[in-house]
Amino acid sequence: MMYVRMEVEYDGTSFFGWQRQPGGIVTVQGELERVLFRVLQEDVSIVGAGRTDRGVHARGQVASFATGSGMPLDRLRHAMNCLLPEEVYVRSLREVPMEFHARFSALWRQYRYTLAEEPFPLLRRFAGVHRGPHELAALNAVADVMVGEHDFAAFSRSGSDTKTTMCAVTHAVWRRSGEVLMFDIRADRFLRSMVRYLVSASITMQPGEVFDALQTGRLGCQLKPADPAGLVLWEVGYEV
Question: What is the extent of the structural domain holding 195?
């Protein structure tokens, strides 16, 4: 049996998220498993480091799977990329120890959110829109409050299967890049839709309000998650 680590990039616009769904619903995991079955002629179940929501993209999603096939990984990667839809691309495949698990071996995940201050047509697939201007100092004053180990229950969508809502954020910074704003955030784990809620919080809430929500687990105002189009799973970190 060979154990494989796969790095995948995808445009999530037309997918119903990462996770396999019943009833023929098209997801990224489902497409990867479909193609692996076609190439390897065996059922393969893959595990992803992050279960991105509908419409969310990835530059550095990591997945792992086991196979009894002896096909060289360079041939397998080429075959997969020939058969996958053009929105999905396998960046790399490499053999790993049996103990490697894409989700549970991950030390941290990093997401990037792109925010446009005007509805530029060429950015609509890969940026959320909130009309500006926005003050970078004000955005980062809110982001600074997020850093540390906190209970992010107030900034997540209900229905998550997680056993705890505690997350350790090590980096949260807004910056301006040309005509857009970018928000990079890194943590050991993320709750469902957490980054999108934190983007909205940066725009609409004061630092003290975010601090109170992290202490109490409750929001003092209504908050909608930011548009999924702007969110990318950027990178996942491991020991090796």
Answer: 108-237
pTM: 0.94
DSSP β-ladder status, 2-10 and 166-177: unpaired
Catalytic residue among 43, 53, 184, 188: 53
| CATH code, domain carrying 184 | 3.30.70.660
Instruction: Examine the residue annotation and report whether 53 is marked as an active-site residue of this protein.
Output: yes
Task: Give the residue among 182, 183, 155, 184 at the shortest CA–CA distance from 167.
Answer: 155
Strands 57-67 and 2-10, bridge-based pairing = antiparallel
Residue 77 sits in a domain whose CATH number is 3.30.70.580
Residue 101 belongs to some domain of the structure: no
Q: What share of the chain is helix, strand, coil (3-state, %, to 5)?
A: 30, 30, 40
Tens-level pLDDT at each residue, the chain (240 residues): 999 999 999 999 999 999 999 988 999 999 999 999 999 999 999 999 999 999 999 999 999 999 999 999 999 999 999 999 999 999 999 999 999 999 999 999 999 999 999 999 999 999 999 998 999 999 999 999 999 999 999 999 875 567 899 999 999 999 999 999 999 999 999 999 999 999 999 999 999 999 999 999 888 788 999 999 999 999 999 996
Half-sphere exposure for 192 (CA within 13 Å, toward CB) = 13
